Model the fold of this input.
Amino acid sequence: MTARHLRVLVVVASKHGATADIGNELARAIAGSAPGRAVGLEAMSVPVEQRPDPAPYDAVVLGSAVYVGRWLEPARHYVAEHAGALRGRPVWLFSSGPIGKPPFPADEPHDVNSLAHSTGARGHRVFSGRLDKSRLTFGERAMVTAMRAPIGDFRDWDAVQGWGDEIAEEVVRLVSTLAVATTE
Done:
C-alpha cells in the first residue's frame, strides 16, 4: 500500500489582505506541524475568488474578513455553492476583523452559525485583524476616523499557528480513524 498525502484546502475571502495573510499562515502551520510532517500533510491557501473545488481535498478551512458583523459575500456564496462537498469532509471556519486590545467587536459574526450549520463545521475561531489606513478607500478612512477605530496590526500569530497545529492533529486523527474503519 502506498502512502497518500493528505490535502487541506484553506479558502479565504479577504478585502485588504490581512485575512489572506492569516490563511497563508494557517496553511504553513498545518503542513509544518509535527503530525502534518509525519503523514505528509499538504495545505494550500487559495483566494475564494478562484472558486477552488473542495472535493479533491481531505479537509477544508474556510475564512473570511468580517465587515459590519458579516462574512464577505464571496465567502457566503462559496459556502452556498459548495455546501454538499464541504459537509462531506472535515471543515473549520475562521473570521478575521476585531481590532484593538481588547478586540472590538467581541461578538461573533452574525452569520457564522448558519455557515457552520451549512458546512458541518467542526469549529470556528475569531482572529483579530489589521487596520492600515493606507489600504482603505476614502469612504472607509472617513468611517474609521469618525469611529476613532484603533489603527495597527492586532493579529496574534501564535494563536493562528497553534490553531493550525490543532487542525493538523485532528485531520491526521480523523483520517487515521477512517483508514482503520475501512480495513476492518
Notes: The longest helix spans residues 157-183. The beta strands are 6-13, 41-47, 59-67, 70-71, 91-96, 123-127, 130-131, 152-153. The chain has a mean pLDDT of 86. The two ends are 16 Å apart (CA to CA).
